[in-house]
């Protein structure tokens, strides 16, 4: 049986995604009640980081430990990964020693090349193309607070980059309408627009995007690796700051999300995370629970078939 990977939301069916999200809610409840649940005892997660991280590292490492397993942190500084060993060679060796691998990388091809040679599941923990683990947490958060997202309207405000791409995939998989407000020249890759097709539209005016929306979300204007563009981006994105006044245009029961870290005074106003409509802290915690459900889903079958 070849390993299942999670490189994009499109790697799972809608039912599988919903199953993982509902399982995340169950695992969250077990944790809140102090129930010890260790289905991944003696299993080992390898965590490959080419980019720095707070939430991704802590949520995967803590999650694996809580499930009874172990996690090994691998940075390019400490391994051959940063010294030119072919990705495929690393994948063959590492997957013979590990039960699951999580990779946070720049080029999405690093993930696909690694997965092609890996005997164990590979998880995309962020690439320049997408961030599917964040979407699991976001969808879990919406479900907890408002129920099913199918048929609802979501507004993405800001750069049409990796997080936006994952929202496009989510619009297709979960059946919501996505309005993307971005400056000219910062639209999502046409490949992703084609994936979203009838679920996605681009508007220039963020207020128009937010009008009547049930979920409003944004991300930093300068992603890791784009630092030299910061000044230019600040000028282009200034009208796209999400504020309390902008949220007032949305549905009365709107939720605001941000995958963090947030730059207050840039993509959001200084007071936005304190607004009662913001669920960014729940959303951040749900990275832990959604990813535990994902790890259980991917690693358990291997456990049973061993």
TrEMBL record:
It catalyses: carbamoyl phosphate + L-ornithine = L-citrulline + phosphate + H(+). Residues 4-144 form the Aspartate/ornithine carbamoyltransferase carbamoyl-P binding domain. PROSITE patterns: CARBAMOYLTRANSFERASE. GO terms for molecular function: amino acid binding; ornithine carbamoyltransferase activity. The keyword Kinase does not apply. GO terms for biological process: citrulline biosynthetic process; L-arginine biosynthetic process via ornithine. Signal peptide: none annotated. Residues 150-297 form the Aspartate/ornithine carbamoyltransferase Asp/Orn-binding domain. Carbamoyl phosphate binds at residues 53-56, 80, 104, 131-134, 259-260, 287. Its EC number is 2.1.3.3. InterPro entries: Asp/Orn_carbamoyltranf_P-bd (IPR006132), Asp/Orn_carbamoylTrfase (IPR006130), Asp/Orn_carbamoylTrfase_sf (IPR036901), Asp_carbamoyltransf_Asp/Orn-bd (IPR006131), Orn/put_carbamltrans (IPR002292), OTCase_ArgI (IPR024904). It comes from the Bacteria. Pathway: Amino-acid biosynthesis; L-arginine biosynthesis; L-arginine from L-ornithine and carbamoyl phosphate: step 1/3. Belongs to the aspartate/ornithine carbamoyltransferase superfamily. OTCase family. This is Ornithine carbamoyltransferase. The gene is argF.
């Amino acid at each position: 049986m070849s390993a299942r990977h999670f490189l994009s939301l499109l790697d799972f069916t809608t039912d599988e995604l919903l199953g993982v999200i509902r399982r995340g809610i169950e695992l969250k409840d077990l944790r809140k009640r102090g129930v010890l649940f260790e289905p991944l005892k003696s299993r080992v997660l390898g965590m490959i980081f080419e980019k720095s991280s707070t939430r991704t590292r802590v949520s995967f490492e803590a999650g694996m430990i809580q499930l009874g397993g172990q996690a090994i942190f691998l940075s390019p500084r400490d391994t051959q990964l940063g010294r030119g060993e072919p990705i495929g060679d690393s994948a063959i060796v590492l997957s013979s020693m590990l039960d699951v691998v999580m990779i946070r990388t720049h080029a999405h091809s690093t993930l696909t090349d690694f997965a092609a040679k890996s005997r164990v599941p590979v998880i995309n923990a962020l690439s320049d193309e997408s961030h599917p683990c964040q979407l699991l947490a976001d969808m879990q958060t919406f479900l907890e607070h408002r129920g099913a997202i199918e048929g609802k309207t979501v507004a993405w405000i800001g750069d049409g980059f990796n997080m936006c791409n994952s929202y496009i995939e989510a619009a297709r998989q979960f059946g919501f309408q996505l309005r993307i407000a971005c400056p000219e020249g910062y639209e999502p890759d046409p490949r992703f627009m084609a994936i979203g097709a009838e679920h996605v539209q681009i508007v220039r005016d963020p207020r128009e995007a937010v009008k009547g929306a049930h979920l409003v979300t944004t991300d930093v204007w300068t992603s890791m690796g784009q630092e030299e563009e910061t000044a230019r981006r600040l000028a282009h994105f200034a009208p796209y700051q999400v504020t309390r006044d902008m949220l007032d245009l949305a549905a009365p029961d709107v939720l605001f999300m941000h995958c963090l870290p947030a730059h207050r005074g840039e993509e959001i106003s200084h007071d936005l995370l304190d607004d009662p409509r913001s669920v960014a802290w729940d959303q951040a915690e749900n990275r832990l629970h959604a990813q535990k459900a994902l790890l259980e889903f991917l690693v358990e079958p291997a456990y049973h078939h061993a």
